[in-house]
Amino acid sequence: MAKDNKADSYYFMKEEVLPGTRKVIDLEAARLYTSTPLSIPVEIIHGKKKGPVLMINAAIHGDELNGVEIVRQMINMISPEKLQGTLICVPIVNVLGFTQKSRYLPDRRDLNHCFPGSDTGSLASRTAATFFNDLALKCDYIIDLHTGAIYRTNLPHIRVNLSNKKALELAQIFATPVILDSEPRHASLRGEAEKAGITVITYEGGEALKFDPIAINAGITGIKRVMYHLKMLSRSARKPPASYIAKSTTWLRASHDGIMRTIVSLGDKVKKGQTLAYINAPLGHFEVEIKAEKDGIVIGQQTLPLVNEGDAVFHIAHLDGKQDSIEQIVEEFIDNVNENQIDPLTTGYITPV
After folding, report:
1. N or C: which terminus of the chain carries fewer CB neighbours within 10 A?
2. More confident residue, 107 or 327
3. Under 8 Å CB-to-CB from 77, ≥6 apart: which residues?
């Protein structure tokens, strides 16, 4: 007799989500001094068949908009009729930061330094506790979406703990050009969820307060690859594009204040001693070079030309001497993302998958 693979109802916050349906639920995280509830919007897409629970979440830092758009488009793409398992979509975790266009909560705390949180702690800690206990702990897998900070942009890449084999496998399926070996930070969502046995990868791409079409399309493509791999969506298996694993990185800092002229771009391969930028005074009476300290690839850089001495201006990933073809991999990655013809600024529904 064939095994019954029909899903049961999914329950969240005492709300029932029937198999093959979707439901939007507001998760109350805290209350403001106006007695107004602070709620995190959550959409549960529950498939007709049994399968894993995957959460995609964005804007733990409230100014990181690319992930919000990635989650929005995924919500519109996924049909619960064709889904196996459950997709939890949280486009905006840090609602207060998002409304203020700020990375932080009003108490200036970084929400991604507050997990697993406390029901009796600060506003940030209470928000973290609600999100972690009511959502994160109910997942088998989490894809945590981030961007660079304000005036700083990132090449699309995955941060993962290489010692976690399940997470590494998921990162390789997601398939960005670079996978960065990154020990989970204490009190981060990834770090605390891993302790609870949940498989988590962190996606980075683009710049805060801006839409980056490459980063958005790459995020959507990577999430869909993961869902195919987890058999949440039906599709014939395809080998993911190659990724390079970087076990170390270097931040290059400005050695002088002034106006920076950058001559390399994200994804460029650089050699030790190569000039990456020049810093000049406004009147042009001096010029300072910023040079690469090791061979590597540019995965992050400051976008604001005005720099102070000590500013972190380039993030270089080191690929252990195996970087001969990295520029080709980056180029093919961008071409592949562009060929997907996903419109990151679309306002309508996309044909469901």
Report:
1. N
2. 107
3. 220, 224, 350, 351, 352, 353
The neighbouring-strand residues paired with 152 are 302
Q: Which helix (H) or strand (E) holds 26?
A: strand 21-31
258-263 mean pLDDT? 97
Hey, which residues does 45 pair with through a beta bridge? Answer: 22, 87
Cα–Cα distance measured from residue 272 to residue 343, given in angstroms and rounded to the nearest whole number: 38
The pLDDT of residue 346: 39
84-90/49-57 β-pairing: parallel
DSSP H or E segment with residue 290: strand 287-291
3-state class of 152 per DSSP?
A: strand
Residue with tokens 């001495």: 309
Phi and psi at residue 160, to the nearest 5°: -155, 155
**How many Cα neighbours within 13 Å face the side chain of 175?**
22
- Say whether pLDDT at 218 is over 80: yes
Residue 321 has pLDDT above 80, yes or no: no
Which two three-digit tokens encode residue 299? 């995965």
- For residue 211, count CB atoms less than 10 angstroms from its CB and return exposed for 0-12, middle for 13-18, buried for 19 or more: middle
> Residue 250 to residues 269, 319, 334: CA-CA distances in angstroms?
14, 12, 24
